[in-house]
Amino acid sequence: MKERLKTLLLVVLVLGSLVQSYVLIYRLPGSDSVVQSKDSYIRTEEMGPEEKPENLLYPDKMIIHLGEDKHTIFYPNDTFYNLVYNRLKGRTFDNFQRRMVGNIDWNKVRSENRGIELSFDSGIPVTLLQRVMQIVPDSLFSGESINKMWLYSVPGEAKVHVMFFSTKGDVVYEAVQADLTVQDVDQLVDFGFNWTPYTMVDGRYYVPNKKLNMVSTELPVGVYTIEQMQRSLFFDPSITRNIREKDGSEIYTDSKRSLQVDQGQHWISYTDPAAPPSGESSPGKDVLSAIDFVNQHGGWNGIYRLSKASESEERTLVKFQQYYGGYPILNTSGFQYGVMELDLQQGTVTSYERSLLYLESPALSKQMVTLSGGEELQAKLDAIAEESRIQNLEPAYLPIITGEGLLLKPVWAVELQNGSVRTLE
């Protein structure tokens, strides 16, 4: 009898041990599994905080059309920008009809009708926009990327027109059903009165009719170390070897992946040329993979916005633009800063570029700066336009390294047709 009890007790202990081991390895349903697939990203070095995709998806500017060819612009972090965007995110858009862009006189719509135009830079996949706005899934529309959303009312009509412009350039989708009234749009547009007036030039960019005030700020900076980046990006940093290049940069490699470091500019370029797994991909899914990668490999060192998600030859280039106080921080050839860029193939990151610098607080100094506007600014732009066509104009910060930290200098950023950017102080 004793032997049977001992045997039974031993069996219970063994079974209990097996159950405990299973729970430790796989955890309980609903919790994160310790065992991960070979394609998932594993958390390594924690440097910056994680970010939710929804917090990275918002327009680069909001153009308010007041009627009678009057306009103004709200930029991220403006009080009215946040108010208008939050209200639009709560509305539902459904029943999309495809139209040709050329069938509507948009210059007439812009000058004669009151409305709100949301700009999304080079475009945002609709599947991502659905994460922040109440857009009812549509088989045709959901596969698009849009660079502009335009809501407007026509005098004498009882409905609001809601248009989504495809990045392809020749197609626009109208949400026939939208729970917005003409009164709703009028109320939102009214926030633009008594704001800085803007004039459209050549149908491409807006110039303020008067000077614009911005704050020049100098901030202390921290620097991520090479050791931190190695622990973040390599599975086993102990097997990496260092190669010094003739230009002064250094390369760290484990014979598979490589990390190139520009010590002068504190800029890194990481590449992983491993063949991606076979499977379907899309810009929307690749953006989410890119966000997940940054969350797990360095984190976010400030406020960012998705500024690019372009697909070509089975690759997706994803770019995140850093902001300070509602304005973008420029990335220049003289000083690389203010962006994160990732290349993906079928959801796998093959390259990753970012700065090792990050801003700290409180500010070392602040000073109000006035940027030119009106005829003075237009004269400067006309001189530039004689050399190259101007595509866009926006206020921005030019980062400058100082002896104390990083100076964010207010400038006008002039984007040219060839993609280059010139600055006007």
Topology:
Layout: H1 2-26, E1 61-67, E2 70-74, H2 79-89, E3 92-100, H3 106-112, E4 114-125, H4 126-129, E5 134-135, E6 145-153, E7 160-166, E8 171-178, H5 182-189, E9 197-201, E10 205-208, E11 212-219, E12 221-223, H6 226-233, E13 241-244, E14 250-253, E15 258-262, E16 267-271, H7 283-296, E17 303-312, E18 315-324, E19 327-328, E20 339-345, E21 348-355, E22 357-359, E23 365-371, H8 374-385, E24 390-401, E25 406-416, E26 421-424
Parallel strand pairs: 3-5
Antiparallel strand pairs: 1-2, 1-4, 2-9, 3-8, 4-6, 6-7, 7-8, 9-10, 11-23, 11-25, 12-22, 13-14, 14-15, 15-16, 16-21, 17-18, 18-19, 18-20, 20-21, 24-25, 25-26
Domain Regulatory protein YycH: 3-418
InterPro entries: YycH (IPR009996), YycH/YycI_2 (IPR042274)
Protein name: Regulatory protein YycH domain-containing protein
Features of this protein?
425 residues, alpha+beta, TATA-Binding Protein, 3 domains, 9-stranded antiparallel β-sheet, globular, YycH/YycI_2, YycH, Regulatory protein YycH domain-containing protein
